[in-house]
Amino acid sequence: MPVIELRIPNLGESISNVTFAKWLKPNDAWVDMDEPLCEIETEKANQELSADKAGKLIHVAQEGQDLEVGAVFARIDTDAQQVASPVPAEPATAASTAPAAAPAASEKGHAAGHPSPAAAKIMAEGGLTPNDVVGTGRSGRITKEDAQKAVEKKAQASESTAAAPASTAPSSPAAPTPIAPSAPAPAVAFSREEQRQRMTRMRRTIARRLVSAKNNTAMLTTFNEVDMSAVIALREKYQDSFVKKYGIKLGFMSIFAKACAKVLLEMPDVNAFIDGDDIVYHHYVDISIAISTPNGLVVPPIRNVESLGFHEIELQLKELSTKAREGRLSLEEMSGGTFTITNGGIFGSLMSTPIINEPQSAILGMHAIKERPVAVNGQVEIRPMMYLALSYDHRIIDGATSVTFLVKVKELIEEPVRLLLDL
User: Fold this and answer.
1) Catalytic residue chosen out of the listed positions 146, 283, 394, 422
2) CATH number belonging to domain 201-420
3) What are the CB-based long-range contacts (under 8 Å, 24+) for 109-112?
4) Which of 6, 9, 7, 36 is nearest to 23 (CA)?
5) What pLDDT is attached to residue 232?
6) What Cα–Cα distance (Å) separates residue 98 from each residue in 87, 92, 95, 102, 334?
7) Domain made up of 107-158: CATH architecture
8) Residue 394 catalytic?
9) Does CATH number 3.40.50.80 belong to domain 3-77?
10) Is it the case that residue 408 has pLDDT exceeding 90?
């Protein structure tokens, strides 16, 4: 069959529609087999679709169009012949009269391949050239995954050579680096201009889920404050040894995650959710971590936190954060979770009321660490303090349960030895 149809694949049971984000190849362009053609937006992540066969690409879908799973987005004419692009003549030089040189090789000895459009963009942002990346695609073509791996390797190499001392400043908790929003348009005096922009599918999904959580749960928030002195002292004392052994810094998030996991197993109502007329209890703790991305907030879970070490949590958090910022989270990595932690402190938030991540029943909000005068043993002392907020579904979690949960987490953070000794 000379012309084949390309359809939107089944990306998971919960996904029935996608948004066609953009074409990576122009109409009537020649494409190789497995070459990325376009990018689509799902409710959870962006994904590239590739060519099933080599041939001439025929556009069907339009950018920004919503498509159902199974809809035709392109056709490929497999009988078409590839037309070689003319090579512009170069001025003759002494070097040009010599025998043709071998293809430029990377430091690993591989010939430099031609990057896909998506890979070229990633390489440009990461300061890489084709010579720096080993292509694993057809005929040595550099794929998006090849470029992402090379950028990650370069970043890791930079971190290992920087040898910068760990920061001990208690101004804000350690967490995934937030993504700066798009720069606003320059202000023009007396301007009356407006701009209308279609919401991304992810933003539409976030909006729908937030409204659903507000309308379908009996949400309430309880607050407490925690003295971060002991945790800060712990990090200052053991940070260098921790980095030397595990290759990653000990952050606040892993300590809070372990504290929450311990209390969640002791108080299963907070780790459960309602399914119809049933309550589903979990004998494990999968903590979803809120991460800011250019397209919105994502909450991929770290699974079995109760069984992980602090370094394992930090390593997984770093990997998930990197993937989230680069739009590489898989649908599986975005699914699940029994409890959520969000850290508004990285943006300077002093206090907030986080919204439950359905179908979960509770979410912990961390905030900025600020030095404040507090009463300690009858004396006024300056201590690094953080407000904590627990939003919960009152249908399943009673007020006494929510308050007790937050107090137990507070006690573990203020006396981290209890956490380490499982007391």
Assistant:
1) 394
2) 3.30.559.10
3) 110/134, 110/135, 110/140, 111/140
4) 36
5) 94
6) 18, 11, 5, 12, 55
7) Irregular (4.10)
8) yes
9) no
10) yes
